[in-house]
Structure formats: structure tokens, C-alpha cells
Amino acid sequence: MRAICFYFQVHQPFRLRRYRFFDIGNNHNYYDDFANRSIMKKVANKCYLPTNQLMYELIQEYGDRFRISYSISGTALDQFEMYAPEVIESFQRLVSTGCVEILAETYSHSLSSLRNKEEFVNQVTLHNKKIERLFGVKPTVFRNTELIYSDGIGEMAAEMGFKAILTEGAKHILGWKSPNFLYCNAINPKLKVLLKNFTLSDDIAFRFSNRGWPEWPLTTEKYVKWLNAINQKQEIVNLFMDYETFGEHQWAETGIFDFMRHLPKVVFSDSNFQFLTPSEVADIFDPVAPIHVPYPISWADEERDLTAWLGNELQDDAFDNLYSLADKVRLIDNPDILRDWRYLQTSDHFYYQCTKWFSDGDVHKYFNPYDSPYEAFINYMNILSDFEIRLNQVYNPSSDNILTKTKKKTSVFKPSTIIQPGSELLMPENVVVPKKAIRKKIVKKIARKK
Amino acid sequence: MFGWEFPPHITGGLGTACYGLVKGLAKHGVDIVFIVPRLFGDEDSRSAFLLNASDVEINERNFSYEEYWKHISYYEIGSNLIPYVTPEDFKSMISESSLKSKSKSENIFKAKYKFSGKYGNDLYEEVSRYALVASVLAKEHRHDVIHAHDWLTYPAGIAAKKMSKKPLVIHVHATEFDRSGENINQFVYDIEKKGMEIADRIITVSNLTRNIVIERYGINPDKVFTVHNAVENIGDSNISQNKGFPEKLVTFLGRVTFQKGPDYFVEAAYKVLQKDENVRFVMAGSGDMLYRMVRRVGKLGISNRFQFAGFLKGEDVERLFTISDVYVMPSVSEPFGISPLEAMRSSVPVIISKQSGVAEVLKYAIKVDFWDIDALSDAIYGLVNYQGLSKMFRKYGREEVDNLKWENSALNVKKIYESIIVH
After folding, report:
1. What is the ipTM of this complex?
2. CA distance A72 to chain B (A)
3. Residue B28: band (very low, low, confident or very high) from pLDDT cuts 50, 70, 90
């Protein structure tokens, strides 16, 4: 039997507040609590809660025949815990049915895979811990931020013990090949690679409510007809999309919920497809070939590359500045600093600084709280400057025991205004200071850089 | 006296200068009727002659105005004339004015449209209407001298002179060449030239400007006098700002436009940062070159030491000065430039371009050619690193600027009045 594999990305960044030049060194609260809270409440009510309810009902109706998967970023989970704990509960209820798989990713939905392997591994580990604590499951399939993937990133995921990874079925990677098969990593063939069928995914995610689209309105019957039209030899259709598609990008009035409610019924009655989760796909099917991806791809924009986050002068400079601090951060055990370090890595901050405003400009605008990429950059760099100042106050290469030295100095900081009781970032067992020997090595490395 | 802005409704240095001058003249016993086109006011021309006392009493910097106002009457004239407005300033003006009168925003937008490049019929109308009002005022109010500030009020000055036959002084704060480089607007140039020709005396804010008036407008040097601007003495201000970082702060403050030379500041910042990491740069202000500057800073990879503070005004300016270690004004063209004086008043050492009028009056300031990035970065590095230099500049700069009093400038203006008053 052929398989439909549904995967939904659930992510919310910690949006930054308007941080003025005069705040640098004086105010260490970076987050727009009001915006984060109100957006979270809004999206929870419009999307997360009703869609989770719908999915739960579908699972109840079709038993274990209806199966789906999610990846939920750590920053989203933290904000659920802070502002909308009922969303966590509804996800827990979904996971407890056994028909829902949770995927691994980086804690802060970051671009660390492109720059700093150690930080990347740390973030994945942190996210794993959070998933285990909240849902009692251990993810076996990895989904990198915004489906960013390359052979090297796949290799890292395989090293961490994941059996499969999700990415975009980008045309320039596939060429004549079809995304509707299982592939494997070019370096480590043990890692299976699932490719998004972007045509069928975007029919739902982007085009569903577009009245200018010749196929509007999209009905379940029409959609299943398209599924059936796929060559019988092709085995898997990977439908990957933002979870916010339901109720938020496509409002309830567009009929998106009704579409989803009826989809399984029609699939079961009119086609030879079944629903599987990514790990089941990886177990059941055999990869047909390795897929070569020498340069990173993503699911963003027309180009399917990294240019939504990196590439212009602003983004590159901000990104370089951010990761130039990584070595120092490794020596710090201050939970406030570590938390801000993770939240500042969220890819959205770089997305706001994007200057390409052509065909995908609308999408960018929709998600962007800033008037211009320049404002986004200025604001981000002001915050990063403050972060660096704090870091330098705490960082003391001559001391072996950071804790005693730093206590005095950190007292100038105001206590953090956001409290996240549950955040993995604040749990003592997750704050690890490198051993003496490694420490010395890092200190030397930093000194050499200067 | 004809001006077009007066504190607190100011968009740049001009209003501040008029205010300082008026206060200085009042001290010397000169009675003044100050007329401004009402920026956001009523359109009814009948209301033009209303004395609006509540407006004038708004005081910005803890001054007692009362004694000065004994000598000064303040008029507002219905007009939608807004001079010298960059889109950014305009935005902030709009937001200010919309609080006061929403119904007038349409007119303001009209005025903006004119100033964004096309000088259409409305502007002629405004200027001549202002002139009309001026002639009526000249009839109603007894006076000895007419004094007009910058080109938009020259026709008013001329009209008043025709009505009352009193001598006319025009005050050149900037010329069309300062505003537009070589691509001057002929309409503006013609008004300027006509005003200068008819005037009995011309006051320029610097010798730099005086030379432009003589050479570019062909004016007889004998009637052109330089009276340098000054700065209000604020005493010890109680504004404080905690500096949140250990690095020395080098500040640029002004419109981010070609005229002000922000690009030279960025390049110099890059040079300094190659040598010395313990410096931080800030660019405060907005303008049509801002985004290009942001990109350049990103490209040079110095954004962790180069911040943008946006458009600042009022107290924020002084807060910035209190934490600044060096103030830089690399203007390509600057008739005078009051802001370095404001920085020195706050004990901040300054670096100014030789192409600014203020360079003529300052001893304790480092002067460089605006294009000489090496000299500029040398100067920044020196002021940041060598205590002796910065200490000296701090101390004597403050003294020097405290001696630049509006009273003194006003006395010179008064002498010019006296030389032409017909008894």
C-alpha cells in the first residue's frame, strides 16, 4: 500500500521588543512580552486548540488508521507553558493515542547546524529532553529548522542516532527524480531521507483559499483524484506544512477544517493510500537511491535555499557576530545568559532582516513585526551588543571557578522578567561547565582570536 | 522680524538660532515683533492676527521666558508652509500635529508634496500670501527695521519694506547651494538673489556663507556682514544617563544625508576599530542615506560596535551627549552648525569638518577635511586614547562655548540695525 505522510511544523519565536540604543548595557530584558502573549493566545484559539481537537476526533473515528506527526520547537513549547498551557495538554492527549509521532529538532529553531556543530548537538539534546519530559517519548526522526538539509547536516543527524530526516523535495536537487520515494543520505546511507512533495503540500498550505487559483475551490474529492493520478509505482506522498495553516494562514471560514475532516474518509474509500508517520515510512520502505545535497536547501521561498535567513550584508554580519560569541558562552553557567543565547539564535530574527521582496515578499511581510529589514537588523544588533557586554562581564578567563567570580559581577543585572518554570534551559542539570582542561583550551582559542 | 519656526515647533537649527537671537536682542533692549507662518494652525486668515500666548509659553529647557516676552509679540499666520523638511522629520511632525488638529493633515500633506521635489503653484501662493500678510502687519505695527530669516521670508521682508519704507536686513542661515549642492532650484535662487539685492544689509552666519553670498549671488561685499551663531548656556543640566558599556562612545548626530557626511563617519569608524576594539560608535538621526549606512556597516562587519539610535530630539539629545566621549560632525557643507556647540556645552570634545562655518569660531575643536578619513580616524583615536588631549578639549571647549553668547551676537546685530536706521 502507498503512504501519505503528514508532518506539521509548530513554531513560535520569542519576538524581541523595541530595544533602544540607550538600553544597551542598562536593560537586559529583550522580549516583547505583550506581543508574544497576545500572538500565542490568538494562534492557540484560532489554530492549535481547534486543530488538535479535530485531529483527535479523526483519530478516534478511524482508530489507528489516521496517523500524523509534529515537530514543536522548544521556543514554542516554552511559550505554551508560559501563556497557553492548555495547548500542551491537548498535544499530550494526541500523543497518548499512539497515532502521533513527535520529531526532534533544535531547541530554538536555530540555524546552528550551518555554523556550530557543538551548539547544534546541544540544542537537539535539550529539545529531546524537553520532548521526553512533556510527552514521554523519544524522537527517532529529525527535522531541521525550516527543513534545512545538506549531506553534512544529514551525517550529523545520523551520528546523533536518528534513523530518518525530513527535507524539501527541491527541484534543483531532484532533477528528473520524484520526491515520492524514500531516499538515503549520501554520506551515511543508514539515514533515510523523506522529501516533501511541495506541489501537493502547497496546494493545501498556500493555495487553498486563493480565489485566483484555477483549481479553487479545492475539495477533498479533487485532492484525492490528484493523489490517485500519481504513478502507481511511486510509494510515498510527503505532505509537510506549517501547522498554523489550519485556522491561521487559512482561516476557518475558508473551509480548511472541513477539508481536513473529510480527507481521511475519501482517502480510505477512493484510493489505495494509507497514513503513516515518518518513522514508519523509514521502517517499511526501502530507499531507492542516495540523494546528493552538497549545498544546504530549505523549504523557504521560490529558491528553496538559505537566502531567506542569510546572504545579505545585514544577515551575514549579525550571524557572524552571534556565533563569534559561542566560545565564551561555553564557559558560562549563568542560566539567564544561556537562555538568551538560545532565544537569540532563533532563525526568525534573521528572516526579518531579509531584503528580497519579490515573489515571496508577501509571505515575509506577513510574519514580520518590523517596518523594514534595516530596523530589524538595528534592533537585533543593539540587543546582541548588550548580550556581549553581559557576557564579557561574566567571562573571566583567569578564573577556574566561574561561579564564585561571577556572583559579584552579575548582581548588577536586573532579575529576568520572564519566568519560565518549565524551561529546559533553566534546569541545573542542563547547565554544564566544561572541565578544566577543555576550559583552558577554549580560553587559549579565544585569546588567539584576538 | 520674519521667521518660519520658533521653539518648540522646530525642525532644525534655524528655529533655535532665531530663538537665541531674539532673546539676545531683547537683552539689549530691542523690541521685536516675531512673525511665523503657523505650521499646523488654522486656515482662516482672520485668525492670523491672533496673539497666541499659550503657545509661546511652552518652554523647553527650564527658562523663564516671561521677561523676554515683555519685549516680544508673537504672531501666527494661517499658512501651510513647511520649510526644509526631510521625510523623516516630516513623519514626526505629522504625528505631533495630528494630536493637535486632525483636520489639517490634508494641508500638511499638500505642503509635503511640494517640498519633496516639485515647487508648484501652491508654494508661490504661500510665499506671496505670507508676503501679503507681512505688508499688512508692516502697516499696523510701528517699527524701525525689518529682519527676515532665510529665503521663504524674503518676499515678506521685501513686501514689508515696500509698505513701510523701513530698512531691510536679511539673515542668511543657509543658501540654496548648501541645500542642493550644484543642482540648485532656480525659483529659490531667484528669491534669494532678489532678497539680497533689495536688502540694506545682509547677515551671514559664517564667512563661508558670506563668500557664497558675494561670489555666487554677486552681492556687494560692503553690505554683507558675518555674525556667528552662539548657543544657549544651559548651566549644569540635571539630565543623566547611565552608560551601560565600558567602551568609549563616538557620536554622530544629525540628518543622515549627503550634506552631513555620514559615510565618512562610517569609514572612519571602521579604521578606528581595526586598531582599537574599545570604542563604540553611534549614529543618531535619519535621512535618505540611513539604509545605505546600515548596509555599509554590515558589510564592513562592525555592527557589534556601531549602533543606530534613530531620530532623537529634546532630552534624548542631551542624554546622548552625557555618555559621549567624542562628537563628530563631518559635514560636507554646513553654513554654520550649532550642534558641535551643544556637544561642547555638555563637555564633549568635538571633531568638525573644515567645511563648516562653526570651524571659524572654535579653537578647541579638531578640524579635518570632511573627505580625509585618515585624519578623521586619527583624531578619533587620539581623543579616545590620549587622556591629556581629551581633558584639555573638555575643559577649554566648555569655556570657549560658554563665551559664545547670543548676547554678543545680538549686540553685533544691533549695531548693524543702528547703522541703517534713519532717524
Report:
1. 0.75
2. 32
3. confident
